[in-house]
Fold this protein.
Amino acid sequence: MRNLYLSNRFFITFGMVAVVFTMGYIVPALYILGIVAFCVSIAFVVADILLLFGKNVDVTAERKLPKLLSLSDENKVILKIANHSQRPLHLTVVDELPFQFQKRDFEQKIGLHAGEENQLAYELRPLSRGEYAFGNTNIFAETKIGLAQRRFRASEPMNVPVYPSVLQMKHYELLAFNRTSSQEGLRKIRRIGHSYEFDQIKNYVLGDDYRSINWKATSRQSKLMVNMYEDERSQQVYCLIDKSRSMKMPFNGLSLLDYAINTSLAISNIILKKYDRAGLITFSDKIGSTIKADRKANQLNKILHALYNEKERPLEANYELLYHIARKLITGRSLILLYTNFESMYALERVLPYLRRINNFHLLVVVFFENTEIQEFVKEDAKTIEGIYTQTMAQNYLAEKSAMAHVLRQHGIQTILTRPEDLSMNTINKYLELKSRGMI
């Protein structure tokens, strides 16, 4: 009896029978009709239950999940459903999703003939890292009569971890190394001059830098030959992630910290593919994960697991501590990508001396965020005095953000002021630009 449920059609049917009974007080003939309708409805319910709970009625389901889910991406979940009964069934599938999605009305419907198999697919977009627990898959089967339902439980509970976006990492890797790509986003920057390692000598073609002509090889071959250079390798690149309370701000359901984590994974993969060494430091009021820059085979895996375990902290970031750990841990001139967020000029001025010191020893790129919600608010029409005042304050806030970027550039610090959703693209572009200009 635990698996027996009554459908909406059942309640509609008996509701109509009750109306007929009620009308029987006015028209006696309807009372007789109501008794007949009630008996017929009961007979149909009993027949429906016997059909559903017969010996040869069985429905199975199998849930197919990836080994891990990617943060902020649409992850596909597939349910393979089979009707092993000898009659067609209408199925309502209710999959028990992890509580993090807060979907309490999830259901899908499907009809299967006798012995037929089919599959349902749906997508989930996780917005926080951690382990997600999927429950059972509940299938409510009903016959063509449709007055009762039988529940089948399939697909055992299972746990799946949500890691920083591996899908985005692979996507940006393809864009960065696809020289023929015409998609918008990552851009190749032609290098002017060179401070690169010698690669080979080749025939001169139109467009080659004439300053690279090898005159000795030209005299031997009796045709113009030029030296080719490749980018210097094994440069150290560190991602420094601020995980203090300023990075808790959510945009499109994803916190700034998670945007920075996804980007750090994507750019670390490209750094390693470019034969440079990738490292990671996270900090807030105290130092978190520290991974020394390297390009071993398991380096990306170490960075992935470290990023998976990171959590926001409620206190302010300690930049003095960051400066000392950077001096101690990062040996040799390196490219440092600092992901943080400044909400006021005062917040920037407090940490600017430490940023300038770090920039004296390394090539520092400060990455912080535009507030896209305020940008959308500024575009709206102000219709009241209060609205005009609020929009003026919002415009001053946006202007202050631009002024902060200008101050950083005035002190020789490379700066990226970006929308959260464009963070990965802009950061990778900056890395490719600095590398092509020979600044690292």
User: Anything to note?
Assistant: The chain has four domains: 4-52, 59-163, 166-189+232-436, 197-230. Confidence is low (pLDDT under 50) at residues 179-183, 190-195. The chain has eleven helices and 21 strands. Residues 385-410 form the longest helix (26 residues).
